[in-house]
Structure formats: structure tokens, C-alpha cells
């Protein structure tokens, strides 16, 4: 069944690379709203491709957005598309985005970031792996069925946006609005917008959530000279250091009472998932450049990054941060830290506990200064059920294409999209990456290998088939 | 004896203000070495004035200085001057400087900083109080003797530099070099380059020294994403917070073992000096904008600022310090703090104890990161003997001019010049301020009041006389 599809994909790989080259050439950097015209050009190009394949496309209004300047701007539309529908088949909705991170030669690119360039089997260019390559791979997987005159075994819907890199403005509202229309008949949602953990193909079943905290201590009405006033002032910076120092112990354990209470206990089945991951601890020490991690074994390190919460102190605003020496007593300082959260932690509950903790510690300082703690909640943590048809189908598709068992992995970082889809639509959600762990998304010299791009296209084609068998 | 001098000074006050206006008009900002030409112009102008008064002037070579860029630049000269010498008289050497801090209208000046402007008895302009006004006051005190045909009762020498605001490059070497020539016959050195503590005239008998510490923690070889790595990495920022948090308790007491051991015990005589200081604790709370100081009484607050050591944490370099949120794990962070020191603390000894303390605390963190502690020693603390003739003469001169007892005060900040003169020349040193406590040296709208400028000139004239009586 799958062989002719794979053959078609192999035979047309140069054409698929050429299409990616055309897409990469569009500078759809969403970082600067004055350049959203390029994002719209890219969305239109994607819409045209889908239409050519027989898809029905709506360029859905995503509303407006208020900039930090106060100015309100119109958002680029979101593509909502679908191919011919058969009510007997399951319906799969594919999410992707066609905007990119900024890129400039002078940032240290070896090749023009907007001219896809193949070197030793790697396709270098901004958006090659994040996320233009995977979006095209989905379309080419559909094409492989159409061109070989095979019925696509699932109904395909697509939701493609152009503002993922700046936080998907308008998208979540749109999802909510279309829950009972566009999403009503959707059974599964699949996202391919992350990377494998190693060189082995992976299925991603969880992401950490996060909250970002601002601890502001305000003291004197002006910055003071430490020679003149030092010794008589309870300095805001000293208060802040005491507060920040109360958050963690030196093993990385969060000291905020109760904050880790809701962490889902590790089951034996889950523990076993870690045995198969081909993560090389020694190699990772070299890559990162540390003598040791906080944990001793591969499994413990991965769990610390993926399935346990963590707290990182990012910096201090308002204190002296330039090179050199300056003998200032800063009047107002703001410490910044974030807590990565895992199921079943609840960000508002974490926020409340952190505030209580900081207020309690502050009360012991007998300080004349003022404490203000604020938090921005990034996203809730997400974890999928591995018994779900999507994961079973994904596992089989990996075996079909690569001949190996996938690694079941999580992302330690926050990718709000999976959790949002799951929460807003109530559908099953899977993350099915085809990008390599060394693709450098967001970095200079972003790439996707020809191997991952083409075998990834096969993976998607096989996935449609395997999913249809289970439904 | 003093009346005719005072009369002359009163009669010529408009001329003295005019001369200050001419000096303020020279933009002798020493902060930018490309503008040291203006500093030289100012030094030449001062030299011409001294010559006109019959003084002998040497523009002494101050050598060269290496800029942070590596470039070596020639330093402006230092004025070494003297008036006619009588071996029977004591010799007083006066120190001053004619360079200024930067000043621009757009920083918030109400008047042009380089156009001395009188408003309600205050003379606004950069350098009015720091230090062109006092330098001219010394010259006008000499002039008052010459013009009234009175013998100057002490031999007068002058050392006037143009780089005080950037750290007196070359000066200390020059002092050492001329110890056995220019300074050989000097009995007393007097400095008027600080301010009164209140509205009462003051004699300053001590300054705190300081050491500036850099605590560098270096970890991974690159900045890391806190989502991807958070929980597995012993973060440099967490190590740094633990180290900085070990330095102080919340009462401001330094926690470094032994660091305060050498603080001179408070004597009853010294304690009594604080009773007379007209410092208003409530007013100071309002000025600074704090609900309370670390101490409860006026005496305790002043002692904390003047005669006890203090530790201030100034900031962190290398961490996230901009507004907004960024989820970075910084790879290398440098905490910065300084310790103000008092007699008989010894900066190298303090440095050794601080390093030992930080290394000891760091060893408890079991960290894979690297700690490096470096220190720059600013200056040793200084305290004068109040039984010294200069202080007795100064006290009498204050009574002659102002009819009150002076306040005996210290400076909490580091003014290396007094300690350096005392150490390098072995002479008695006094600081005799004429500037008001609200003159705003280094700030926008720097000023000296006409009252302080003119009565200060009288104070200097009276001081020459009183000193000669005691010799």
C-alpha cells in the first residue's frame, strides 16, 4: 500500500526541495509588524498551493492586535482549509505556520538565509525546518496520494497561521470561535513544529507550561551613593537577593512550599519510556559545556528537563548591569524568574503559592521597602495519552518509514499550541516532529536535512494510512 | 586683625563672582580625554591668575595614561605653585582641582551649566561648588592679605590638578616624586573639596575607604533556554544569588567572618562629637524617601554612614537586565558589590577575608561552575587627629567667621586624596569644606550660594591667621 507513495515522494524530491526554496525566499519574518505584508504574501502562496491541489481555502479574519505603542493593527488572516470530505473517514486537522524568525547574513549565516542552499545533504535557510519544510511535507504527503490515484484515507483539514513566532496573536480566539464549525467534525489534531531529541524519530507527548515572575522591590525615592548612604539604608538589592535566594536550593529543588505538590507521580510505564531514548549524557555535557548536570543518569536528566518543574532566575532589572564598577544603591530593582510547570500543576495556583512565599520571606526582613510581585502566565503544561489512536498510528508510521521504534519524548520548553488545541476543541492532539535535533531552529544557519524532509514526507503519508486503520 | 580682610572680601564679592563666572565658562569636563584641551585651557587660566598675584608656577609633567582601548595619552599638567617664602613661617599646601563633571542642558539643568547664573543668592553652574568656587576662594583669601598690605601669616603652596573627576591620573605618582622637593618644607595640607553635613560649617576628619568586588560565576559554554535545560543545570545565577545572599544580614551587618574585627572602637570623646551635629533624621527620611533607616537615632545613622563599614550590592552583569521577559539561563554572571572601610581596616586584608568567605560558601554548593573573585582597591580609609593644629585653627576660624562651633564630620564616601597626601608626604592633612550640603555636586543644577562662597573666602583668610598663631 505505502510503497507507491514512497516511490512517488522519492521520485519528486528535487521538486519538493525546489518548492521549499520558493517558500524560503519569502521573507515572512513576523517579528516586525510593518513587514507583515510579506507574511500575507507567504500565506497567499500557501493558499494557492492548497487550492491547486483541490483544497477549499478560507482566509479567516484573525481580528486586530494592540501593539505596545497603543496602536491597533489588523492581523494577517489564518488559513482554514479542507480537502474533499467523506463522512465515513476520520478527520485529521494539521496545524502549521509559515512565518519565520528574523535572519540576517551579518548575524553569522554562512549562506543567504533566504536562499535555500544545499550543502552535504542539508538544506540551509530561514524557515527550512521551522516550519515551512514540515508544512510543505504535509502537502506533499497529500499530493503523493493524489498523484498515485489513491484515495486519501482520512479527511484532511489544515490550519496555517503567520504569527507563530510572535505568539500567535488572534489564533486562540479564532480556534474558540470555530470550535463548533470548522473544528466540529475534527477527530485528531496533529502538529509538526518541534524537533527530535536525538537522531531517532520521535513522538512528542508533553510540553512544560510556564509562569514568568517579576519581583519588584522599591526603596528610596532616588538612586543613592553607596559611600554616602551605605550602612544606613536597607537596600532594595539586598532584599531582592534574599528573596531570590529563598526560591531554590543548590540541588535545583524549588523551595516554595507546596508548589510541586501536584506533579503527577511517575508510573512504571512512564519510567520505561526513558530507557529507550538514545540520549548520550557525556555528549550532552560536551555540547553544553558543563562538568556535570544536577542529576547523575540519563533518565534523571531527561525527567528533570521534561516531566519535573524547574525554576530559573533570569536577571535583575534596575541594578547596575554594565561592565565596570559603579557604586550605586539602586532605588528600585526587579528580579525575574520563571517556573516551568508540568501536569497537573496549575499556573494560577503556582502564582498564588509563589506570592505567598515571597511575602512571607519579605516579612522576615523587616524592610521599609515595598514589595510587588507580578506574574505573566505563559501556558499550561500539556501531556497526551499515549494509548490514543494518534500515538499508536504515529508509532506504526515511524516503523513503516524508518524501521525503528520512535522515542517517546517531551519538550521541556513551552509550546502553548498543543495545550490550547486540546483545551479549546477537546480533541486528541499529537506532536509529530520531522526536524532534526541539530536543525538550529531560531538560530543562525537553520536547516533541515534532505533526509528528514523527504523521509518526513513519507512519515506523514504513512501516518494518514495508519491512522485510518485504527479508526 | 581679620576685620580689614573681611571688609575687602565683602567689598569685592561681585568681582569674585565674576571671576567664578569666567572659570565656569570653560568646559573643563575631564570625562572625555579628547576634550582635555579645555582642561589645559582651564589650568593655564588658573596658572595665569596665580602668576598675576606674584606666585611662582610650575606646570608639572604628570606623565602618561593608558586608556581602556590600549592607547596611551599624555596627561594634562599639574599646577605646583608657591608664594614668597619666609622660613620662619609655617608652610600650608592647598589642594584643589579645576576639572568638572559632564553637564548638558538636556540632563535637566534649569540654566546653562556653563553660564554661572545667580538666582535667589545661589550661583548655579557646573564646577561652582566642585571645585572651581573653593579654588578661587583660596586665591581670593590670599588676595585679601595682599590688597590690604598685610603679610600673609603662612607660606602658601598650591597643588591644582585637572583630572580629579576621573581619578586623578598621574597625581599620586607626582606627589611621591616631589615628596622630598616640593613637599619637603610643607607643614600642613588642606583640602576644600567636600560639603558640610548640614547648614552648619564643618571640619571633616575622616573618609571611608573602599574595595570593589567582582564575583564571576561561569557555567555552560553558551546561554541556554530555560525551557529546554531548566532543572538539569546548576545555573550560574543561582550560585551567584547564594553567594551574594551570604554577605549581609537584613540589619545590614556584614556576615564575612572577621571583616569588621579591625574597626576602631568608639571612644566617649568621639561619641560626644555626634551630639552636636544638627542632622535632622526626619528631614533626611523625607529627602531620601525611606520609612526608616537601619538605625533608630541620628547618632547611630551618622556612625553607620561615617565610622562603620558597609556593604552594598550594586548589580549583576551578564544576566538579563532589560525590561520585559526573557527565558534565558545566562552562562556567565558577575555580581558586583563594594565594602566601605574604616580605620583600622586594611583593604588587602578585607579582600583576603571576602575571597575566603565566598570560596567557603561556594564549596557548599557542590557546583560544576567556576568561581572567580577579583577586587579593585579604591582607597584606604582615613582619619585625622583632632588635636592637630589644623583642626584647632580650623575650629577657631569657623568661630571667627560664623560665630559658631563647627561640626566635626566625616565623609562616608571615598575621597582618596586626603589619605594619599597623608601617606605619601607624612604631613598633617585637613579637609575644610565651604560647600553647602545641598549644592548638588555631580548633579544637575550644581550651585554654590553667594553666602558660602564669600563667607568661605573669609574662612580661608581667617584660617591662615589662626594656623600661624598655633605654629
Automatic annotation (TrEMBL), chains A, B:
GO molecular function, one term: metal ion binding
Any one cellular-component term (Gene Ontology): cytosol
Site (Important for catalytic activity): 225
Record carries keyword Nucleotide-binding: no
InterPro entries documented for this protein: CNDP/DUG1, Cyt/Met_Dipeptidase, Peptidase_M20, Peptidase_M20_dimer
Cofactors required: Mn(2+)
Cofactor binding, note field: Binds 2 manganese ions per subunit.
Domain (Peptidase M20 dimerisation) ranges: 205-361
Active-site residues (renumbered): 99, 164 (proton acceptor)
GO BP field: proteolysis
Membership in a protein family: Belongs to the peptidase M20A family.
Protein name: Peptidase M20 dimerisation domain-containing protein
Organism expressing this protein natively: Esox lucius
Organism phylogeny: Eukaryota, Metazoa, Chordata, Craniata, Vertebrata
